[in-house]
Every structure is written in structure tokens, then in C-alpha cells.
Design brief:
mainly alpha; about 0% strand; 8 helices
Length: about 210
Amino acid sequence: MALESSKNIDNAADTDTQKQATEQADVEGKIPQSTMEQIADLFKAIMSHDDESRHFLLRVVQPGLAGLMDGSVSTLAPIFATAFATHTSFTAFLVGIASATGAGISMAFSEALSDDGALTGRGSPVIRGFITGVMTFFGGILHTLPFLIKDINIALTAAYLVVAFELVLISAIRHRYFGTSWLLSTVQVVGSGALVFAAAFIFGHA
């Protein structure tokens, strides 16, 4: 009886292993192998509005969203802390440019080196790293641009509005592609932004 139970367990394990292998083969078969082929495939998906497929989400939306969230949130602290401490718009602008650039490079390599796509089916690490890096820089540079305005108070007000836009955009993407409710997504995104902004306020007024 025990021997029969053990065989059933082994058979079930073999079945699961075969199923996983089949699913992995399907994933690898659907994704073009070369980087140029994958780029062409992504453009084809965009042009045909096939932006909800699992492959598109894994290869474009997820790395892009990760970059946008990091750039929009993590760079808040150094930029606004500098603005609060120095009361000089251009200094805050320079810190923002440096933060956005550094974060973009860091996130690009982090995404590319953390997963080669062979096991997860997420496609070329070069493409994902590029998407993540660009979106990180984009998220960081958006609320940096208002500090080109010389008047620090006007610059801060404009930056607040841009940050609000960024957080709404992130919430919208999470709702659109991952089915996260508007309320939950907004609370999570705004909550993380509020924590970082609190750090900026504390250190900027130290």
C-alpha cells in the first residue's frame, strides 16, 4: 500500500515536471531568439495593439513600470531635500539630473543582469534593461524640469503638480495592465511617494 502511494506521488511529480517543461518550451518557442527579432516583434505587437498578452506584459510593461516607479519615487528625496535646504532652483535641477541619470543607469543594469530571460521567458535582458533605464530616467527627469524656473516657490509648486501626474500615471498603468483597483493602486503609490517626500522634508530642513 505504501509502495503504491509512493509510486502515485512519483508519477504526479513527473507529470508536473513534464507540464512545466512543456510550458517553458512553449514560452521559448513563442519568443524570437535574437535581440533584433525581439525588437521587431515588440513593435509588431504595439502596432497591432496586442498590448495585453503575457509576453508583452513581461517584456515591456513590467520593466517599464518598475523603472517609472523607481524614477518617479526614489529621486524625490534628493531633489526636494536640496530645494528645501538651498532654496536655489538650479542647484535642485542639477541634483535632479544627476539623480535621474544615476538611477537610470543603475536600474538598467539591475534589470538586465538579474534575469537573462532564459528561464522566465521575459525576453532579451538588453531590451528589458534599456526599457527600465529609459523609464527610470523619464520618471526622474519629469519633476526635475520645473526647477529650471528661477523662482523656487513657483518651481516647487510646478514640481508638486508633476509628481501628482506621475503618481496618477503609475496608478493608471497598474490598473490598466495588472487589474489593480484604482483605490488600492492610488493608496499604495501615493503612500510610497509620501514616505519619500517626508524623508526629503526632514533632511531638507535639518
